[in-house]
Amino acid sequence: MSTPTALSNARAVSLVARREFLTQVRKKSFLISNVIVLVAIIGGIVAYSLFSGGGDENRDTVGLVGDQSLSALLVTAGEQTGTLVEVSAVPDEATARSRVESGDLDVALIPHPDGSATAVTDSEIDTGLRTVLDAAVAGQAQQSTLAAQGVDTAALREDTAAAVVTVDAINPPDPERGQRIALSIAAVVVLYMQILAFGMYVAMGVVEEKSSRVVELLLSTLRPLQLLWGKIIGIGAVGLLQLTAYGIAGVGTGLATGALTVTGAALGTVASTLGWFVLGFAFFAVLYAAAGSMVSRQEDVNSTAMPLTLLIMAMFFTAFSAVSNPDGTLSNVLSWIPPFSAVLMPLRIAAGVTGPGQVLGTIVIMLAVTVTLSAVAAKIYQRSILRVGKTVSWKEAFGRS
User: Fold this and answer.
1) At 85, is the secondary structure helix, strand, or coil?
2) How would residue 386 be classed by pLDDT, with cut points 50, 70 and 90?
3) Same structural domain for residues 138 and 236?
4) Phi, psi of 176, rounded to the nearest 5 degrees
5) Are residues 255 and 284 both part of a single domain?
6) Based on C-alpha coordinates, what's the Rg of the chain?
7) CA distance 216 to 239
8) Other C-beta atoms within 10 Å of 19: how many?
């Protein structure tokens, strides 16, 4: 009787990975939950775009009664002071007051023959808008006075046009900072949830196979490490697929609605988040698999996996505290230390405060530490996976009597 041909490592791992992948994606709960999340992402971004005005600049609405010569001066004064205004003509004072009461206008301006004007408002006028109104009315009064005295006001404006102050900021504000912060927060939150959730999926899957004795059947044809890596790769591929769908839906909707305008930063954030998910998941998945192999009941897995969960939570809170200052000392130092690199580097990439050297260096360090931990976790998995009954202690898992 001939002995069955042993499967090659690649073939064995791919078969287990395919089984794990298909088992996860075919679950109704997986499909339904992901549809709900995608609808929430797209709907939330669309709603934000609609209610925030689609990214348009906020303008104060001013109704000008009668003579419209003040209109150009109001717009110019608004542009100069940074308080943009939209001026519309109003036929009479009664209409102006009615439109202010209904909220259609922020202010109604009623010019008087002596050069003064009355500003009608519902309650009070914003300081910036008051400055615009005062500047426009005063400017028109000056022009009228100069014209009455025979001064060519057009020539005067031309001669004094160069008399402006140019601002030379040493550290100019980043107009895209708000969007970069939003991308950073999204990257941190998504990575935290994905690494934690799919790490636990690995641990629970290991415990389920161990408690049901399925693992004994699988190990009759597979080696423990083949089963371990097949499970990690299969579940990791599901997490990567899910994360990719979230990223495409979120960024695509944001760019389509105008909620996001930093196209390069958005695409770079998605790419870095996917890449660092792979690294972060690989780091924790082998450890979660080892933790799962040490128990025989699913209700016991939290006890052995608790240190890993606490570490992931520490990563999340550290990264979240660094969102407001991604180039600070804490963020810069910890981004070199695995596994904190997995959440801090996508944050720093989204914020635009890191260079290719740090990205490459942290990837190399993360890979080296993950490979080292994988060897340790694999030995724990091999020693513990067939031991049914009481929880295997860490001392026993490391092969010490």
Assistant:
1) strand
2) confident
3) no
4) -100, 10
5) yes
6) 32
7) 27
8) 14
Calpha distance 291→282 (Å, rounded) = 14
Beta-carbon contacts of 191 under 8 Å, excluding residues fewer than 6 positions away, are 273, 276, 277, 280, 342, 343, 346
Max avg pLDDT among 40-54, 128-142, 339-353, 355-369 = 355-369
CB 343 within 8 A of CB 192: yes
Residues 235 and 342 in one domain: yes
Q: How far apart are CA 38 and CA 245, in angstroms?
A: 8
pLDDT at 2: 41
Q: What's the full length of the chain, in residues?
A: 401
Least Cα distance to 343 among 282, 288, 278, 277 occurs for 277
273 domain-assigned = yes
Phi, psi of 109 (to 5 degrees): -105, 125
65 φ, ψ (degrees, to nearest 5): -90, 135
Cα separation, 34 vs 15, in Å, equals 25
The answer as to whether 306 is a domain residue is yes
Q: For residue 219, what is the DSSP state?
A: T
Distance CA 248, CA 260 (A): 13
81 pLDDT more than 70:
yes
Domain with 78 in it: what CATH number?
Answer: 3.40.190.10
Q: 356-384 and 341-351 are packed helices; what angle lies between their axes, rounded to 10 degrees?
A: 160
Q: Is residue 146 part of a domain?
A: yes
| Residues with Cβ within 8 Å of residue 317, at least 6 apart in sequence | none
Record the pTM. 0.71
Helix, strand, or coil (residue 239): helix
Q: Are residues 134 and 213 in the same domain?
A: no
Task: Tell me the percentage of the chain whose pLDDT exceeds 70.
Answer: 93
Residue 274 lies in a domain: yes
Distance, CA of 215 to CA of 211 (rounded, Å): 8
Residue 155: which residues within 8 A CB-CB, separation 6 or more? Answer: none
Q: Which of 67-76, 119-128, 162-171, 229-238 has the lowest mean pLDDT?
A: 162-171
Q: Is the pLDDT of residue 54 over 70?
A: no
Higher per-residue pLDDT: 366 or 263 = 366
